[in-house]
Design brief:
Layout: H1 4-15, H2 19-22, H3 24-27, E1 56-60, E2 68-75, H4 82-97, E3 101-107, H5 110-116, E4 120-124, E5 127-132, E6 135-137, H6 148-153, H7 155-164, H8 171-183, H9 187-201, H10 205-217, H11 224-248, H12 255-263, H13 267-277
Parallel strand pairs: 2-3, 3-6
Antiparallel strand pairs: 1-2, 4-5
């Protein structure tokens, strides 16, 4: 039950909102001159559910200091909205689980990392009420690993290094190191790392370099990426065979036919076209 002193200690500010400014000297903060003050509704209930999700949330146990929660956020670019959501994540989780909370932000470029590392304050510039200080990992502090033995010692760290250094001029050497390090790694452990690196590189030029390395150095794996690369190889072979057969039979290959054949990535479809190429009288009849 709320006590009378409790009510009195805060309701006086409802009656005299400018009282806070007269307490500034007692509180030891320097405030700018008062312009206006008014009471605002005290109801903070959200009438509509608001979905908020962190990227990854871990509960970490330590030997001496007890457990804590780790929020991991992947940040690809500057996002002004994070100045509100990141402090919310920290305070909400601390209130819900009553555990210390750390926020870790992973970046792939220096500008975003520098932006993410700035403390986020809620309150007045002269006296912030809440300060969120993210930990930031990115190309500025994650080591560049180009030694195979070093990569094998900690494959997870080496994978993170490959992802965070996706735009590094030496990314080819970094990826080659990873492909060699994974060659002698059990497939169950290596497969998710192969896929994570592919995802982390996105559509950068380095992504094709990684695909090439997987096709050569890690061709014995049965990961989704390896299977995709094998399908692409089979498709290229079938496409070339279709055009060779048509050409060997003296069939004029139209530009439309050539483009459609070379653009097809389905080995089964290309195989049907290859069979038809042995008997058609016009190149476009293979599509009938």
């Amino acid at each position: 039950m709320v006590s009378a002193p409790h009510e009195a200690m805060h309701r006086i500010f409802q009656e005299h909102p400018d009282l806070f400014f007269r307490l500034s000297e007692v509180l030891g903060i320097d405030l700018p001159p008062l312009a206006s003050a008014e009471s605002v509704t005290v109801d903070l209930t959200e009438t509509e559910p608001l979905e908020r999700r962190v990227d990854t949330l871990l509960r970490i146990e330590t030997q001496h200091d007890g457990p804590f929660l780790l929020i991991v956020e992947a940040q690809g670019k500057k996002d002004p909205g994070k100045t509100a959501s990141w402090p919310y994540y920290v305070t909400y989780l601390n209130n819900k689980y009553r555990l210390p909370v750390l926020l870790l932000v992973i970046c792939q470029d220096h500008a975003t990392a520098a932006w993410a590392a700035r403390p986020i304050t809620i309150g007045l510039p002269r006296w912030p009420a809440v300060t969120a200080r993210p930990l930031v990992a990115g190309p500025h502090n994650v080591p560049v690993i180009t030694n195979v033995a070093e990569a094998r010692k900690d494959l997870a760290l080496a994978t993170l290094a490959a992802i965070t250094h996706a735009d590094n001029p030496d990314v080819d050497a970094i990826l080659k190191t990873m492909s060699l390090a994974l060659r002698e790694t059990p497939e169950a452990l290596a497969e998710p790392l192969v896929e994570l690196i592919a995802q982390g590189l996105g559509n950068r030029p380095a992504a094709q370099q990684w695909r090439n390395l997987v096709a050569v150095d890690l061709s014995f794996y049965t990961s989704p990426l390896s299977e995709e690369i094998r399908d692409e190889g089979r498709a290229r072979g079938h496409a070339e065979a279709v055009l060779v057969v048509l050409g060997a039979r003296g069939i004029d290959i139209t530009q439309d036919t050539r483009e459609k054949v070379t653009a097809c990535g389905d080995p089964e479809v290309l195989l049907r076209w290859l069979i038809r190429a042995a008997s058609v009288t016009a190149s476009d009849e293979i599509f009938d």
